[in-house]
């Protein structure tokens, strides 16, 4: 993994850049001390580290606007950063760039129960939104496992999902409006409390753009009323293939659970040892299926799902009897990533999405890859929508194991594309999947995506080195190519 070569003229001008930034953000808002910069050297993809040139911590949209304009005038690269929980290296710093930290944007600006929405700053945590509205029986639906720490601004950047995104959608389905700042300092508002906007879907374009197009400074989210009833089933299977077939059968029956998650044996044991949720330890695969809605509907669907699971070989079945037990079922799944961290010095968390029907095949192929590379893998899936999170276990202190883990992960993602899926479901491309984009997109596709970036950031100063295997200059993308003295399509009229 190679990042763009640092611009030595920018590094040499560091003191002047710092002075200019301190005029905009006085006090302790500009960080240059090496020990303090080290806090920002990586995000959740800790295999890669790089000290930033400078860290700036603004508190207002005006300051963000002035910072970006200042950086554009000086040709300084900018990496926006929220809580740094990105698992794809989306917030990896640059040696000749600043980290624009948005942690001080942490206020809930407005709660509007009549319109069922809330306006928050990007540094508010995902779980913080639900905590702010739960007293009135409302909540914010997308719930990544890192929801206690990850921020809503980062969720917008990566289009994050969570265990309940099967029924209630990802970030893009629960977003109503944004305030954002472009690289030239322009402040834009997109959408709002209304349900839809005219013209181009700029809100959809920004969601999942990974900090390449602009810096989000305010977010309007949709609030949902808490369901009347919610109950969860724990279903154990002797094989992962049986569990995968059960997932497909539940969806085929027209049942859309609030959440449907899957773990394999290594993940089950790690989570149970960590949380003591009461998971069965004698199974190779565990499904957690949550059904919510009116009491009568939930009771009916529990019987239907139980019957489908029995038909597909479930050997254990347990239904939550109260809210405390339902939450305990989910506690193990939510803690699966840190739990696996207790059984391996390091792990590499992948993120790809496949058609549900391909789940048994992909699980079988991953077991073969595990034997090939000599590395264990613990699988945690958003099974209902085919979003896979294989955790490849390795030891970075053993020569060659990190490289083997990367190759293993690359093969998994290529397999996802091969069976009709995509490279990422919710973690983003970042640097982790950047060099695999060619496995999914043609050169024409990638250049078209880069033209969108050029429209927002012509100098490619926002989060460069991420997403695109090779970032062309905007002038190159718009250039007319002449071959053999002839323009392409010479018969077309030119204006």
UniProtKB/TrEMBL annotation:
Its cofactor is FAD. Gene3D superfamilies: 3.30.465.10, 3.30.70.2740, Vanillyl-alcohol Oxidase, Chain A, domain 4 (1.10.45.10). Residues 48-226 form the FAD-binding PCMH-type domain. It comes from the Bacteria. InterPro entries: FAD-bd_oxidored_4_C, FAD-bd_PCMH, FAD-bd_PCMH-like_sf, FAD-bd_PCMH_sub2, FAD-linked_Oxase-like_C, FAD-linked_OxidoTrans_Type4, Oxid_FAD_bind_N, Vanillyl_alc_oxidase_C-sub2. One of its GO terms (molecular function) is FAD binding. Keywords: FAD, Flavoprotein, Oxidoreductase. PANTHER family: GLYCOLATE OXIDASE SUBUNIT GLCD (PTHR42934:SF1). This is FAD-binding protein.
């Amino acid at each position: 993994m190679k990042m763009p070569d640092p611009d030595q003229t920018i590094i040499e001008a560091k003191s002047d850049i710092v002075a200019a930034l301190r005029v905009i953000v006085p006090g302790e808002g500009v960080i240059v001390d090496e020990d303090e910069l080290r806090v920002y050297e990586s995000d959740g993809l800790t295999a890669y580290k790089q000290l930033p040139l400078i860290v700036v911590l603004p508190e207002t949209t005006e300051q963000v606007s002035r910072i970006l304009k200042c950086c554009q005038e000086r040709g300084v690269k900018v990496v926006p950063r929220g809580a740094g929980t990105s698992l794809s290296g989306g917030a990896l710093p640059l040696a000749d760039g600043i980290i624009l930290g948005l942690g001080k944007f942490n206020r809930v600006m407005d709660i509007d129960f009549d319109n069922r929405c809330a306006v928050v700053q990007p540094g508010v945590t995902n779980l913080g939104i639900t905590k702010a509205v739960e007293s009135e029986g409302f909540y914010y639906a997308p719930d990544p496992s890192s929801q206690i720490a990850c921020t809503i601004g980062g969720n917008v950047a990566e289009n994050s999902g969570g265990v309940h995104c099967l029924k209630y959608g990802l970030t893009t389905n629960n977003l109503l409006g944004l305030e954002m700042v472009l690289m030239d300092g322009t402040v834009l508002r997109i959408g709002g409390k209304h349900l839809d906007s005219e013209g181009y879907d700029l809100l959809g374009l920004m969601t999942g753009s990974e900090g390449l197009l602009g810096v989000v400074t305010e977010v309007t989210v949709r609030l949902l009323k808490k369901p009347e009833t919610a109950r969860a089933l724990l279903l154990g299977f002797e094989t992962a293939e049986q569990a995968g077939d059960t997932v497909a059968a539940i969806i085929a029956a027209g049942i859309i659970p609030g959440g449907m998650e899957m773990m394999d044996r290594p993940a089950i044991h790690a989570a149970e040892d960590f949380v003591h949720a009461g998971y069965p330890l004698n199974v190779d695969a565990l499904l957690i299926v949550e059904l919510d809605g009116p009491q009568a509907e939930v009771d009916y669907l529990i019987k239907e799902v139980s019957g489908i699971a029995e038909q597909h070989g479930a050997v254990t079945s347990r239904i939550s009897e109260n809210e405390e037990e339902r939450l305990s079922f989910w506690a193990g799944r939510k803690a699966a990533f840190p739990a696996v961290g207790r059984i391996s010095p390091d792990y590499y968390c992948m993120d790809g999405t496949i058609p549900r029907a391909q789940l048994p095949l992909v699980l079988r192929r991953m077991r073969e890859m595990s034997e090939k590379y000599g590395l264990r893998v613990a699988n945690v899936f958003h099974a209902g929508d085919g979003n896979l999170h294989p955790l490849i276990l390795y030891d970075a202190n053993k020569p060659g194991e990190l490289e083997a883990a990367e190759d293993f992960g690359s093969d998994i993602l290529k397999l996802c594309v091969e069976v009709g899926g995509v490279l990422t479901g919710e973690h983003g491309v970042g640097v982790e999947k950047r060099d695999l984009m060619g496995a999914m997109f043609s050169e024409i596709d990638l250049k078209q995506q880069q033209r969108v970036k050029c429209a927002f950031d012509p100098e490619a100063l926002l989060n460069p080195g991420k997403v695109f295997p090779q970032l062309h200059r905007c002038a190159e993308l718009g250039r007319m190519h002449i071959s053999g003295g002839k323009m392409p399509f010479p018969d077309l009229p030119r204006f």
